[in-house]
Design goal:
Layout: H1 2-26, E1 36-38, H2 43-49, E2 61-68, E3 75-77, E4 83-85, E5 92-96, E6 106-111, E7 119-123, E8 126-130, E9 135-138, E10 152-155, E11 170-171, E12 177-181, E13 196-200, E14 208-212, E15 220-222, E16 229-233, E17 245-251, E18 256-257, E19 263-264, E20 268-269, E21 287-291, E22 295-300, E23 314-318, E24 331-335, E25 347-351, E26 364-369, E27 375-379, E28 384-390
Parallel strand pairs: 14-18
Antiparallel strand pairs: 1-6, 2-28, 3-4, 4-5, 5-6, 7-8, 8-9, 9-10, 11-12, 12-13, 13-14, 15-16, 16-17, 17-21, 19-20, 22-23, 23-24, 24-25, 26-27, 27-28
The chain binds calcium ion (2 copies).
One calcium ion (CA) is lined by residues 233, 247, 258-260.
Length: 393
């Protein structure tokens, strides 16, 4: 008995030591060896596996699994059609559709050992990766998906806080890389650059704060009609189930303040930090998106596949609530562009990832329009990228 006990102890110690060794190793970036997985072409079994029969879409739309991708978070697509997928773990994926039939063929691990590589952005042949504190670059990546280069550091001076630390990143029409820095708390007066959206040049120079008063933006895009920046911002917690709302904001110029932590959703002064402040001193949201829905990725619909009234519409991925008494979100909503350039209030577009108050079937994180006009949706809960397409009935 004693012998058995001591062997178990030895084994546990060995496993513990192994875990420490491997976790130390994983904290460094490393050259990733070729690691490609073929995507199953059995659409029916994938559809079943991810319970996609539960997803409701407007008439004529169809959803299918594009690729199985563990912890799929932010999406970006190169002009050649390579899809890049960030995660909140350590890996970054590239997904190819080699025969251009709208079904992914291969999933490559192109980086590993990174510290929450949530953000991905593509420019001039290079993939930019946003981790908690560091922006990396993988050069000429598309020609070496099966033998990716070691990541090059572009900029490494972002704060190391993990609270609201995962980053969405994207290049603006000014060719600068936009990088948000969330407030490192639920509610506090954030020390800059916390609570902002910053931007840097593609070579890492020229850091500046673009917009302030932002709690935590995990998705933004530029309006294709006027090149203005639009972004989602997640409202604070612990003011109850129904306030404050998440926000859809627009920042057409640098230097605007969106109110956090003093004023929420444009009209609610914070009970603590709002004392002596006025909501009139801050830019209000264009749309209130609902409390706790966790509005993350957003894109304008620039494709031609969907019906004409979707032209320039804003799709928003709602990751879903985590601390509301009844769950909300877990869907993709759409705000359509009116003829005068304003937007309708967002309405559900794809829902069913929340089956009932406790049954979660998936959590949308980001949306991305492909060149053929279909819309991708990432899901970090089930670990997949879905593709929504349209065919007139
Ligand atoms: Ca294919
Ligand atoms: Ca605000």
């Amino acid at each position: 008995m004693h012998l058995l006990f001591s062997s178990i102890k030895k084994l546990l110690f060995f496993l513990f030591a192994l875990a420490i060794i491997s976790s130390c190793k994983n904290n460094k970036t490393e050259n990733t060896k070729s690691e490609a997985t073929a995507v199953s072409q059995n659409s029916a079994s994938l559809f079943k596996k991810y319970n996609l029969d539960k997803i409701k879409l407007p008439a004529g739309f169809k959803i299918e699994v594009y690729a199985e991708t563990p912890d799929a978070r932010s999406l970006c697509v190169s002009p050649n059609g390579t899809l890049f997928v960030g995660t909140r773990s350590k890996k970054v994926y590239a997904i190819t559709d080699e025969n251009h039939d709208g079904k992914a063929d291969k999933v490559y691990v192109i980086a590993s050992g990174l510290n929450v590589p949530n953000g991905v952005a593509f420019k001039d042949g290079s993939l930019y990766i946003g981790t908690i504190s560091t922006i990396y670059r993988l050069d000429s990546i598309e020609s070496r998906l099966d033998n990716p280069p070691a990541p090059v550091v572009v900029y490494d001076k972002y704060p190391s806080d993990t609270h609201h630390g995962p980053k969405f990143i994207a290049f603006g029409p000014d060719n600068k890389l936009y990088v948000p820095v969330g407030a490192p708390c639920n509610i506090c007066i954030p020390e800059p650059p916390h609570g902002t959206i910053t931007r840097i040049n593609a070579d890492g120079s020229g850091f500046e704060i673009y917009a302030t008063g932002i709690r935590n933006s995990v998705g933004f895009a530029w309006n294709p009609t006027n090149k203005e920046l639009w972004f989602t911002d997640n409202g604070r917690d612990e003011l109850g189930d129904d306030i404050p709302s998440d926000e859809l904001n627009t920042a057409p110029k640098a230097g605007m303040n969106f109110g956090y932590p003093y004023c929420h959703e444009g009209d609610i002064l914070d009970p603590e930090f709002g004392k002596g402040k006025s909501c009139l001193d801050y830019t209000p949201p264009v749309k209130k998106l609902g409390a706790h829905v966790a509005s993350l990725g957003m894109r304008f619909y620039t494709g031609n596949m969907f019906p004409a009234d979707y032209k320039n519409a804003i799709f928003i991925a709602e990751h879903g609530s985590w601390n509301r008494s009844t769950l909300v979100g877990y869907r993709v909503v759409v705000a359509k562009m009116n003829s005068n350039g304003s937007f309708t209030d967002p309405v559900p577009f794809a829902e069913g990832w929340l089956q009932n108050v406790t049954n979660v079937n998936g959590r949308p994180v980001d949306v991305q329009v492909l060149a053929d006009g279909s819309l991708l949706v990432s899901d970090d809960y089930k670990g997949a990228v879905y593709r929504i397409s349209y065919k007139a009935l």
